[in-house]
Each structure stands twice: as structure tokens, then as C-alpha cells.
């Protein structure tokens, strides 16, 4: 795990190595000061020797200045190194997620990914800064202080040695208790983010159902759980500080008491006693810094495991390593003995024994009940998922042999849920083709019956779309998404119930335009309405992951009971609606 994270240091390796060097020098200067103070007292102040006072005083000033300079340099390089490490980590996490297939994304919730990219990375940034600064300063402070304490007086320095095992025991005990609680806290953060995300995305629904009180209650519950867990974990963690302070004051009292007796008997000088107290305090502070470091490592280790899980997630769908096909010849499609399971288990199949051949340019309607795997079937075409058994071919080539970017540019997918991004209409449409000309954009919008409403806006194609397309209607979003897909110049285009928010007349106009302007493009039209697929060349009827009917509208009305039932129920609804 540590090795995986350290790979993200990269160009900040130099400043990362300079930080411990400056911290070492800073700690060295700090360790010299108590010794110089003892010299000032014993050789300058007590004998009233002003020459020694000035001489040692200059050394103290120089050591203090150097300590300050090295401290500033260490702080600067630590900040640069930790910020750079966090920046690289966020970059790698985001790029890794972009490589994920739909199956990989299914392993993580959206809210969990957001927390890992933000809160967890920030926590690791703090941990890294502590690792290259505090984790160096603390042990060196401890080593220098113990060495100098023994150099001054071995008998009194042994008091500190006796105290160390007790302190380490409490540190290990607290960390062992705190770690599982921190893991629970981060899991609770994921739950809280889910509640917030759902609330913000569904605010209109919440208000229309006047369900704000329930949402507030859910939020308060999740927030209270985080507060409760944090209170519990920090009650344990903060006990380190009082224990350390108790040890420091106890040691100070013992050393002052025993040391003052040695001063009276002449076996210890006043300056040595003062330096000894300083060194013991310095050693204890080193232990306190170490304990803080270990607490931070305990907190960040949970974040580290969550972040590394993203980086180490094996990408399920990969480009062919050699001889990837970079050209899709045509839009012909064949499903050869295809079965599919989201869990890759043959006893939990969503699709089973699919055999299907579709000529380039055919319009294929797909209809079936909810959960009949209509979307799953077409998701295999752009390789959002790979088949569990069998193969899918486009243009006579197995989709696994295509370069993924090539394949997905030629298989346009207009999903059930229309997704637009913050930016202008023009910027959203250019997702389909970055270098699309204004004429190409207008032509695509005309085919998608979107040009009329776009040009009614004061800023037309420069109209700003808010996050998620909240300032346009559902039908307008769908038409923009269709136009965006058309700009890719696809060989195959999939409409996954993507005209459900469009009125029947507009839907007919879109179908007519596509048929006349793109006769060679294979179309898959998933729909709930028979009217949306009745004019297709062939219609697939699906039920429980199997194709239970295939033919024209007229043929299925004669031969397929499921299609007959759907058609009759929708026809009755239309008659009732017209009579009303």
C-alpha cells in the first residue's frame, strides 16, 4: 500500500528528500541550545565572566537563527512536497476512474468515490507532510536529547528510560482501539454523502412530495452518527496528551528534586541541571510528536486503504494489447450464443443464449417488460460490459478486438437518463465531435428536432447549461443528447428509451429525419411504447433475459402473445384517453 502511494511523489521527490535534511539540521541546532545555556550559566554568569557571556551568547544567537532558517526551509519544502503528492494522487485517481468499465464503477458508489478523491486525499496529504517532517523531527529530537542527557548525568537520565515503556504501552493501546473506529467514521462519511447527493439531485421531487422533513431526519441521523463516532474516537486519541504531560511534569519534578541535591553536594552544576531538565523535556516532546504521528497514521491508514483500492482495482475491460482494429467497416451486428451475468456467474444470467444477426442500416426495435434486460443487451455493443459466454461482432469483427475508443465513437449510445454537463449548449454538443463546425452542429440539432428550441433562446447555441441540465426540460435534454450522439458520425446508434420525454409528433419527426439522412446507420430503439418501434424493420421482444419474439410489427401481432398484450393494453389506453 505504501509503495503504491509513494509512486505518486514523482517530480516532488527532491523537495521530499530535502525536507528531512532541513528538519535534521533544525533539530541539531535545537539540541545544541540547552548545552550552550549550561555553558552560559556555569562559565559566564556564575563566575561573572562577561567575555564568556558575550562569546556563548553569540553562539546561542547564531544557533537560534540557524534553527529558524532551517525550520522555515523545512516547512516550505514540506508544503510543496505534500501539496504536489496530493495533486498527483488526485490526478492518478481521476484518470484511473476514467479507465474503469461500467463493471468497475459498480464496485463503488458515487458518493464513496467523491469522498476518496477529496477528504481521503486531503487526509493523506496531511499524513505525508507529517511523515517527511514530524516523523523525522520526533526521533532525532528523542535521540539527540537522550544522548545529551546521558552525557550530562547518566543517573538522572535513567529516569527517562524507566518512563518510556509505560508511555509506549499507552500509545499502542490507544492506537489499537482507535483504528477500527476511524474505519467506521469513513464508511459513515460515504453514507452521509449519499444522502446529500440524493437530496440535491432530487430536490424538486422532495419538494413536490413535501418530504423535506424525512430528508432532514435522514441527514441528521447520518450526521449524528459521524459526530458520535468522532467523539468516541477522539476521546480516546486525546488521552495521549494528558498522559504525556503527566509524564513530563513527573519527570521534571523528580529531576529537579534529585538534581538540586546533587547541586548542593557539588556533583552537578546549576547549568547542567538546567540543560538536563531541557533535554528531558525535549525527549518527552519528541515522544509526544511520535504519538501524534502514529495517531495521524492510524487515521490516514483507513484513507490510504480506500484510495489504494481505487488505484489497484483491476480494469475489467482493456484494449487489445496487439493488433487492435481501428476501423469499423459497417454497422452489421451479430450475437453468437451470448450469455451475460453482472457477477460473471453462469447460474445468475441476465441474458441467456442470444442468437441474432442484424444487417447494416437496419432499424431494430426492442420491447419488453421492466427487468427483461433490454439495456443490458445493447450495452454489450460498445463494450460497456463483456459477455460472460459467446461473442458480439460488429462489422464482422469481435468487439473485444476493436480499439475501445474507435468502437465507442462508432457505436453512439443515447442513454435512458439524459446527462448534460455544465457549459454552453455548443460545448455539450462538441462532446460528440470536438472539432465539429457550426454547420455540423446545426444539422445534427435539426435531425434531433432540437434546433427550434435552441434558436428560441436569446443566446442560442451559446446558452449556458447548468449542472445536470436543470435549466432545460426533460424532452429538450433528450434531444440535445441525441444531437450529441449524431455528431460522432456513428455506424450504430442506440436509443435507450431516449425519447420517452418527447411528444409523439416530435418523436416521429426525429425517426423520419434519421431514416432519410442516415440510411446506412444501424439503429437500436429501446422503447416502452409500441408506437415508437412499430415502423422498425424488425422488433425484438424480450422476456427474462431471452429473445421470445423477432419480426415486424404485423408478424408479431399474429405470432407473439407478449407483444399482442402490450399492443392491446396501449391501444386501450389511447382509446380511453381520447374518449375522456
Overview of this protein structure:
Strands 6-9-10-3-11-12 form a 6-stranded mixed sheet. β4 and β5 form a beta hairpin. It contains 21 helices and 12 strands. The longest helix has 50 residues, at 50-99. The protein is of the alpha/beta class and 580 residues long. It folds into 2 domains: 2-312, ABC transporter transmembrane region fold; 333-418 and 491-579, Rossmann fold (3-Layer(aba) Sandwich), CATH 3.40.50.
Topology of helices and strands:
Elements: H1 2-6, H2 13-45, H3 50-99, H4 102-105, H5 110-132, H6 134-152, H7 154-201, H8 203-208, H9 212-237, H10 240-265, H11 270-312, E1 333-340, E2 351-358, E3 363-368, H12 374-379, E4 389-394, E5 397-398, H13 404-410, E6 411-414, E7 423-424, H14 425-429, H15 438-447, H16 451-456, E8 464-465, H17 474-486, E9 492-496, H18 504-517, E10 522-526, H19 530-533, E11 538-543, E12 546-551, H20 553-559, H21 561-579
Parallel strand pairs: 3-10, 3-11, 6-9, 9-10
Antiparallel strand pairs: 1-2, 1-4, 4-5, 7-8, 11-12
| First-residue to last-residue Cα separation | 67 Å
Count the domains: 2
Beta-strand percentage? 5-15%
Round the Cα radius of gyration to an integer and report it: 35 Å
- What do the pLDDT scores average to? 81
What global shape is seen?
elongated
Structural class: alpha/beta
The CATH class assignment of the largest domain is: Mainly Alpha
Question: Can you list the strand order of the major beta sheet?
Answer: 6-9-10-3-11-12
Assign the CATH architecture of the largest domain: Up-down Bundle
CATH homology superfamily of the largest domain? ABC transporter type 1, transmembrane domain
Amino acid at each position: 500500500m505504501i509503495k503504491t502511494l509513494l509512486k505518486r511523489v514523482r517530480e516532488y521527490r527532491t523537495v521530499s528528500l530535502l525536507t528531512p535534511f532541513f528538519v535534521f539540521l533544525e533539530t541539531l541546532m535545537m539540541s545544541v541550545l540547552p548545552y550552550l545555556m549550561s555553558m552560559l550559566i556555569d562559565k559566564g554568569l556564575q563566575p561573572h565572566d562577561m567575555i564568556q557571556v558575550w562569546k556563548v551568547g553569540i553562539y546561542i544567537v547564531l544557533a537560534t537563527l540557524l534553527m529558524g532558517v532551517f525550520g522555515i526551509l523545512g516547512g516550505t519544502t514540506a508544503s510543496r512536497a505534500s501539496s504536489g503528492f496530493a495533486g498527483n494522487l488526485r490526478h492518478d485517481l481521476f484518470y484511473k476512474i476514467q479507465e474503469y468499465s461500467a463493471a468497475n464503477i459498480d464496485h463503488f458508489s458515487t458518493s464513496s468515490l467523491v469522498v476518496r478523491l477529496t477528504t481521503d486525499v486531503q487526509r493523506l496529504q496531511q499524513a505525508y507532510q507529517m511523515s517527511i517532517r514530524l516523523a523525522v523531527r520526533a526521533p532525532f529530537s528523542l535521540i539527540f536529547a537522550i544522548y545529551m542527557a546521558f552525557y550530562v548525568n547518566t543517573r538522572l537520565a535513567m529516569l527517562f528510560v524507566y518512563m518510556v515503556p509505560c508511555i509506549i504501552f499507552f500509545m499502542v493501546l490507544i492506537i489499537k482501539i482507535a483504528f477500527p473506529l476511524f474505519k467506521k467514521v469513513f464508511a459513515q462519511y460515504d453514507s452521509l454523502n449519499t444522502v446529500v447527493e440524493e437530496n440535491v439531485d432530487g430536490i424538486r421531487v422532495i419538494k413536490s412530495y413535501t418530504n423535506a422533513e424525512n430528508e432532514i431526519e435522514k441527514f441528521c441521523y447520518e450526521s449524528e452518527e459521524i459526530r458520535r463516532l468522532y467523539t468516541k474516537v477522539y476521546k480516546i486519541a486525546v488521552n495521549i496528551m494528558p498522559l504525556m504531560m503527566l509524564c513530563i511534569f513527573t519527570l521534571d519534578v523528580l529531576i529537579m528534586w534529585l538534581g538540586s541535591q546533587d547541586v548542593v553536594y557539588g556533583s552537578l552544576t546549576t547549568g547542567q541541571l538546567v540543560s538536563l531538565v531541557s533535554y528531558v523535556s525535549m525527549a518527552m516532546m519528541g515522544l509526544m510528536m511520535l504519538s501524534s504521528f502514529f495517531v495521524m497514521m492510524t487515521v490516514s491508514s483507513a484513507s490510504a486503504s480506500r484510495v489504494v483500492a481505487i488505484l489497484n482495482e483491476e480494469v475489467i475491460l482493456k484494449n487489445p494489447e496487439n493488433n487492435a482494429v481501428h476501423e469499423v467497416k459497417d454497422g452489421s451486428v451479430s450475437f453468437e450464443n451470448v450469455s451475460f451475468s453482472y457477477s460473471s456467474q453462469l447460474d445468475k444470467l441476465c441474458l441467456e443464449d442470444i442468437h441474432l444477426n442484424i444487417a447494416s442500416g437496419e432499424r431494430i426495435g426492442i420491447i419488453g417488460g421492466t427487468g427483461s434486460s433490454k439495456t443490458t443487451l445493447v450495452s454489450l455493443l460498445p463494450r460497456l460490459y463483456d459477455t460472460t459466454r459467446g461473442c458480439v461482432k460488429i462489422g464482422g469483427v469481435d468487439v473485444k478486438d476493436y480499439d475501445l475508443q474507435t468502437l465507442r465513437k462508432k457505436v453512439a449510445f443515447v442513454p435512458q437518463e439524459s446527462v448534460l454537463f455544465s457549459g454552453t449548449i455548443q460545448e455539450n454538443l462538441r462532446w460528440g465531435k470536438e472539432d465539429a463546425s457550426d454547420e455540423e452542429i446545426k444539422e445534427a440539432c435539426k435531425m434531433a428536432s432540437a434546433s427550434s428550441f435552441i434558436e428560441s433562446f436569446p443566446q442560442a447555441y451559446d446558452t449556458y447549461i447548468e449542472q445536470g441540465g436543470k435549466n432545460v426540460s426533460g424532452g429538450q435534454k433528450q434531444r440535445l443528447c441525441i444531437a450529441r450522439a449524431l455528431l460522432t458520425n456513428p455506424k450504430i446508434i442506440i436509443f435507450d428509451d431516449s425519447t420517452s420525454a418527447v411528444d409523439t409528433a416530435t418523436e416521429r419527426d426525429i425517426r423520419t429525419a434519421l431514416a432519410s439522412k442516415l440510411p446506412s446507420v444501424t439503429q437500436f430503439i429501446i422503447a416502452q411504447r409500441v408506437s415508437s418501434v412499430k415502423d422498425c424493420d424488425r422488433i425484438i421482444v424480450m422476456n427474462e433475459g431471452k429473445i421470445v419474439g423477432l419480426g415486424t410489427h404485423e408478424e408479431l401481432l399474429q405470432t407473439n402473445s407478449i407483444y399482442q398484450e402490450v399492443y392491446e393494453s396501449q391501444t386501450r389506453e389511447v382509446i380511453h384517453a381520447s374518449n375522456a
